[in-house]
C-alpha cells in the first residue's frame, strides 16, 4: 500500500487464492472485463442441490502440467459470461479470498472456465477491485514478488487447505453402522460421500476410456473409494474395484489385498511368506489324506475352517481326532474348501482385534466368547472390551496388514504361549464394536489418512540439460 493509502496494481501481478490452495498465481488485471475468471479444468459439481459445490483442477505454473492443484468451493451462482473473443458460456461462480500481499486481502467472485491455452491462469476483472485499488495499465508487478517455489515438495502440504472430496463407499448395506459412520464422518468434514451398491455397478472395459456405470449412468470421477465388499461377492466386488484402480482413483484397500485376505488358504500362505506367527495350518484336497492332514497340525482338539468363512460361520472345533475326521468328511461331502488348524487352548476363547489404519494400530479390543462357544465373534454373541496390547502384538498386527497392502484392516490375533498368532486379516472391519470399546472416533482417523493421501502432487524440478 502506498503513502496515500491506495493499492496500486499493474496489468500483470502476483496474486494468491489461499482458500483454494493457490498461494501464488500470475494474473492479468483487466478493467475492461467485468467478471474475474480462473482458467480451470475438470470442472464438476457435487453435493446436495440445496448447497452445491464445485470441484476443479488448475495447473498454476504455466507450462508445468506435472503440477495439478485440485480445488473445491461452494457454488454461489451460475452466470452467462461473454469472453473477449465473443464466445458466450454458462459458468459456475465461486467466492474466494484474494491475497494481494502486504496483509491486504478481500473476497472476490470468480467464474470458472476451461481455457487451458491462456497464458494467464487468472483474469482479475473490475468487480474484483476494491475502491482503494488503482490499476496502472502500463506497469507490471507493482505488488510484492512471489515465487513458484511454494509448490515444491517441502512446502506444498503447508499451503494446501483441506478440500472437499467426492468419495464412494462400495457397500450393499447402507443402513449398517459402519456405512452410516463413514457417511456421517465424511459429510461432517465437508466431503460428498455416496453409497454405491457394488452389485449394481457394471463396467466398460477398454484401453482408452475405461468406465464404471451404475443404474444406467456413468459414475463420476471420485477422489476416493472406500470398499466394504462382503464375502459373498468378493470376486465381483474386487472386479469393480480394479476398474476404479484402472481409472486412477485412490482406493483405501486394493483389490489384490482384499482377494488375498478373503481366501483363508491364500492369506495364510501370504502370512507364512512374511514369517508372521499363526496357528499351525494344513490343507489337502484328497480324502485319502485326512489322517496325514490331521497329523501335520498335531493332536486334537483341532479347528476345521471353511476357506471363505466370515463372522465365525463355517468354523468348527473338533475336540477329538474322530470328531475331526467326521467334520472333514462332511465338508468334503459338500465339496467345500477348508483348512485345518491347531487349537490354541491357552487363548481360552479370547482373541484380540487390532484396528489398523495406514500402518498404525489405532485401537484394539479383547473379544470374549459367549458361554461355551470357542468363537469370540461379536456377531455370535461375544463381548468386547478395550485392551492394551504389547509392542510385539502391535508390530505383528502392523506387519500383517502391510503384507496385504491394506490401508484399513482388522487384524485378529490370539495370545499363545509362544507369542501372538494371527487368525485373520479382515479388509472390511466393522466400526461399531471397536468404537464402542475404545471410545475413539476411528472413522475420523480413517478420514485423516484419506485427506493426507489425496493431496496435490508436488512440483518436480526440471532437469537441466548439461552440455557435453
Fold and architecture overview:
This protein has 468 residues and is α+β, with helices and mostly antiparallel strands. The protein has 4 domains: 153 residues, Beta Barrel (Cathepsin D, subunit A, domain 1); 86 residues, Rossmann fold (3-Layer(aba) Sandwich), CATH 3.40.50.20; 61 residues, Dna Ligase, domain 1; 105 residues, D-amino Acid Aminotransferase, Chain A, domain 1 (2-Layer Sandwich). Helices cover 21% and strands 34% of the residues. The protein is built from 10 helices and 27 strands. The strands form 6 sheets. Strands 2-3-10-4-9-8-7-6-5 form a 9-stranded mixed sheet, with no helix packed on it. A 5-stranded antiparallel sheet has the order 25-24-23-26-27, sandwiched between helices. Strands 13-12-17-18 form a 4-stranded parallel sheet, with helices on both faces. A hairpin with a 2-residue loop joins strand 23 and strand 24. The radius of gyration is 29 Å and the shape is elongated. The two termini are 49 Å apart. The model has no long low-confidence stretch (mean pLDDT 86).
